Amino acid sequence: ALLIFSGPAGLVNRLVLANRAVVFVGLISYPLYLWHWPLLSYLTIVEATYPPFYQRAIAVAIAFVLAILTYRFVELPIRHGRTYRTRSTAALVTASASLFLLGFFAHDLAPSYDEATKKIMQVWNFSGYPNSDAFFDDKEYGFPAIGRNDHDKIVFIGDSHTIQYRQTVAGLHTKSGLTPDQFPKVIFLQDIITANMKPALFKKVVDDPAVKAVVFSEFWALQRRSDKINYAVRCCGTGLMQMIGPQVPARLTQQQIDEDNKNLGSLVALLRQAGKSVYVVLDNPFGEEVAPRSLLDRSFFHKIKISLVTFSKADALERDEPTRTIVRKTAQDNGAEIIDPMASLCHQATCPALAENGMPLYKDYDHLSEY
Predict the structure, then answer these.
(1) Which residue of 17, 133, 304, 328 has the fewest C-beta atoms within 10 A of its own C-beta?
(2) Contact 358, 116 (CB under 8 A)
(3) What is the pLDDT of residues 284-331, one digit of tens each?
């Protein structure tokens, strides 16, 4: 408003806004607005991340060229020409219809990917674990359960790294050949971590004589806010490519970490005193090296291709330290048995992202795939 009020004699208006280059950008500003957005958006989608500066610069340069051509051969003839108005309108209608048909049949026109790529793409689109029809809400505990043997119970406690093993238990339930009344009732106290265990709920588990075993499974490094986790590319967010984004959880003090570990030891000890078997599942390998989104090299400038990065077992183990060693020692010192996923998911020297048949072993940065 102040610039308009100052009139053409105003200093900014006279020296800056009246400059030929600035006026020219003003003339092509609407087609430039129309072109820059799809180019930058599509580039970002294809790259699956924020593209490097040189690619963004190329996209903006192309947008300028297209904007100039649109202004010269579309906008000006329609606005100022009478002879070409009918023909321009017909051409625009034809172009719009062609684009509509192209979009409608795009799936059929797209190149077919090889089977190895398709396997990764299937997991890429996999967001959550499907619920088995055999699961039900246990009335006593108020959590999902499978199996109906009320005299033989197993309780899982933890975050999403407990939820990921529901698939395993559901598979065992199907393959066991046991009737629901024979299969142990497996209850998943999910989205509950040992650091925030509700005393009343835990007391119920301890006092329940039918509970024979308790399994603790958390993303231990995450719950202790390890600085070795790349929080910007972890799973399950709502930002770019369903990533959490650059937010980093608040760091814990060493005193808080020590208290969490001490609390884990106390929970294990109480369960062992109650005569129950206790298992602690350590972290599985995690990182961009195993995430399906990083296994496909996608670009605006070349065809999609598989790009595997060697993930050494030594690096996987080191990334989980010191959490891994402390959790293992705390659990064992208080009588728990250790289940180490790395023993199965890693070879002697490496932790592969794909199984021998090409199926991804992980669904994202740190969760196991449904396979």
Answers:
(1) 133
(2) yes
(3) 999 999 998 889 887 777 778 898 999 999 999 999 999 999 999 999
Strand partners, 156: 188, 215
Contact assessment for residue 300 and residue 271, using Cβ atoms and an 8 Å cutoff: no
In 160-286 the beta strands, taken as DSSP E runs, fall at 184-190, 211-217, 277-281
Report the candidate in 48, 170, 113, 122 with the shortest Cα–Cα distance to residue 359.
122
- Determine the Cα–Cα distance for residues 4 and 212; give it in Å rounded to an integer: 79
How far is 154 from 341, CA to CA, in rounded Å?
A: 19
Q: State the sign of the Cα–Cα–Cα–Cα dihedral 48, 225, 196, 277.
A: positive
Name the nearest CA neighbour of 297 among 85, 106, 158, 124.
Answer: 124
Q: Which amino acid is at 210?
A: A
Q: Is 162 exposed, middle or buried (0-12, 13-18, 19+ CB in 10 A)?
A: buried
Residue with tokens 């674990």: 129
Residue 43: CB atoms within 10 Å: 19
Q: How far apart are the first and last CA of the chain?
A: 61
- Show the tokens assigned to 131: 């619920």
**β-bridge partners, 354:** 360
Distance CA(46)–CA(298), nearest Å, equals: 6
Cβ atoms within 10 Å, residue 270: 16
DSSP strands (E only) in the chain: 136-137, 144-146, 149-158, 184-190, 211-217, 277-281, 296-299, 302-306, 337-339
Alpha carbons 260 and 255: distance in angstroms, whole number: 9
Backbone angles phi, psi at 188, to 5 degrees: -110, 100
Q: Give residue-wise pLDDT tens across range 158-200.
A: 999 999 999 899 999 999 999 989 999 999 999 999 999 999 9
Cα 299 from Cα 47, distance rounded (Å): 5
Task: Give the HSE-up count for residue 297: Cα atoms under 13 Å, Cβ half-sphere.
Answer: 8
Q: Read off φ and ψ for residue 153, nearest 5 degrees.
A: -120, 145
Q: Before 322, cis peptide (omega within 30)?
A: yes
CB 263 within 8 A of CB 272: no
Tokens of 13: 């208006």
Amino acid at 319: R
14: enclosing H helix or E strand: none
- Name the residue with tokens 């698939």: 167
